[in-house]
């Protein structure tokens, strides 16, 4: 049986044709100082590309435009381009256009340019991202009042992460604030980004690899690993980023 | 049958011996300017007291000490004293002492004196109230980090309201922020205040009236009406405060 298992595993490994890589917590640790690359990760990206495997970066990053984010990573030495990155904001823009939604944005200042071509007058939905310092009491009340005033409140959340690690410690992620608005307005947010199935599917389509032949690599057991598995992919959890073993979970 | 129903109702009305009155949204509308009394409410309190009915004020107010809050209401003309008010902070202090919990406080500055006699060194729980302007990104991250760092995170929430009405509009209440921390830390908050059964029971005990002979009057269908009913009381929802008819719910 062990031998059969080994053969199966080897057959599966040979079948792998594409990798989806999370960025924050896998390639680098973010932070107010711009963050630092995780040891070995610049070289790992280079080796994956040299191996002939297809590679796509699949991130829930919403603190900057893809352009700015990619430039930062290139500055750290990563071989990465904007066209290789699947991120929530462009996916949200497609949905907003399709459904004629005019968003009120509760997002990071640096993400706003991603919505440049979207009509934002007289909003009929709220889009929430990892707004960081923009998560003020006043801004949350404003988003809440708009939502509760809508005939049919629509809340779109760019990811639903609980928290993430920056160089100076753990920070609440967009999911916590999404929950606050969901509860106050008695609505359910529509999540754009990991772990939404549609998000992984579009990343796979962009890479041209079916789920059975792809692996997702991330540091988040829910958004990276769980989401990818529900999509029919295999997934690996790295022990960097927010990863904490059961023992270190409550230090 | 209608006649029997009428007789039943009349018998019940004769049996009523005590009233629990919510304050914000029932007696006055709060606001940055101190708020304004709701028309007729000063007189209503006077008449209830003159009628011989027992009366107790049952509030989730946590933006001020009971002393300061009562002084404000007295200034508006209400016949009210500190001893007549059941509020979350004193109830929380009893729990903290009983269980040797040392709180980190995420509350309004004006509520802090209620916790003067509580040991707050090296916190082993977080107490969250309606912190209003203190609900900053930095303060929420701080409370989150303390909670997630605890071996067994304990989150005590002073009420679980969704929102309330101030003179300048609707504001997110403590419940929204409680949900954010619950989600981020995967814990369930212990609610002190309405709609917790124990909170109504202590108000009834202080008034010396059993639930079957008491009515709760409030503007919140969940925290006032639902909570009181689950406690065996009858309840009335006023149409002031945050009350919104089905038609006006989504203007």
Automatic annotation (TrEMBL), chains A, B:
Keywords: Cytoplasm, Hydrolase, Magnesium, Metal-binding, Nucleus. Its cofactor is Mg(2+). Pfam families: Hydrolase_6 (PF13344), Hydrolase_like (PF13242). It catalyses: diphosphate + H2O = 2 phosphate + H(+). GO terms for molecular function: inorganic diphosphate phosphatase activity; metal ion binding; phosphatase activity. SUPFAM superfamilies: HAD-like. InterPro entries: HAD-like_sf (IPR036412), HAD-SF_hydro_IIA (IPR006357), HAD_sf (IPR023214), LHPP/HDHD2 (IPR006355). Its EC number is 3.6.1.1. It comes from the Eukaryota. GO terms for cellular component: cytosol; nucleus. It is found in: Cytoplasm; Nucleus. PANTHER family: 4-NITROPHENYLPHOSPHATASE-RELATED, PHOSPHOLYSINE PHOSPHOHISTIDINE INORGANIC PYROPHOSPHATE PHOSPHATASE. Phosphatase that hydrolyzes imidodiphosphate, 3-phosphohistidine and 6-phospholysine. Has broad substrate specificity and can also hydrolyze inorganic diphosphate, but with lower efficiency. Belongs to the HAD-like hydrolase superfamily. This is Phospholysine phosphohistidine inorganic pyrophosphate phosphatase. It comes from Chordeiles acutipennis (Lesser nighthawk). The gene is Lhpp.
């Amino acid at each position: 049986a062990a031998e059969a298992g080994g053969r199966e595993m080897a057959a599966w490994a040979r079948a792998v044709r594409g990798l989806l890589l999370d960025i924050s917590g896998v390639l680098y640790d973010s932070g107010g100082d711009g963050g630092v690359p995780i040891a070995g990760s610049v070289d790992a990206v280079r080796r994956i590309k040299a191996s002939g495997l297809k590679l796509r970066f699949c991130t829930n990053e919403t603190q900057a435009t893809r352009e700015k984010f990619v430039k930062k990573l290139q500055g750290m030495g990563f071989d990465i381009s904007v066209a290789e990155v699947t991120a929530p904001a462009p996916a949200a823009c497609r949905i907003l256009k399709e459904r004629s939604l005019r968003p009120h944005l509760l997002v990071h200042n640096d993400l706003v340019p991603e919505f440049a071509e979207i009509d934002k007058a007289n909003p009929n939905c709220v889009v929430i991202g990892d707004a960081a310092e923009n998560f003020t009491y006043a801004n949350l009340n404003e988003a809440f009042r708009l939502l509760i005033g809508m005939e049919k409140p629509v809340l779109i959340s760019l990811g639903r992460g609980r928290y993430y690690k920056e160089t100076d410690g753990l920070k609440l992620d967009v999911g916590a604030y999404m929950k606050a608005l969901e509860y106050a307005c008695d609505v359910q947010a529509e999540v754009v980004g990991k772990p939404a199935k549609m998000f992984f599917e579009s990343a796979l389509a962009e890479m041209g690899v079916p789920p059975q032949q792809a692996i997702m690599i991330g540091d988040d057991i829910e958004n990276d690993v769980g989401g990818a598995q529900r999509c029919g992919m295999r997934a690996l959890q790295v022990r960097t980023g927010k990863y904490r073993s059961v023992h270190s979970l409550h230090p």
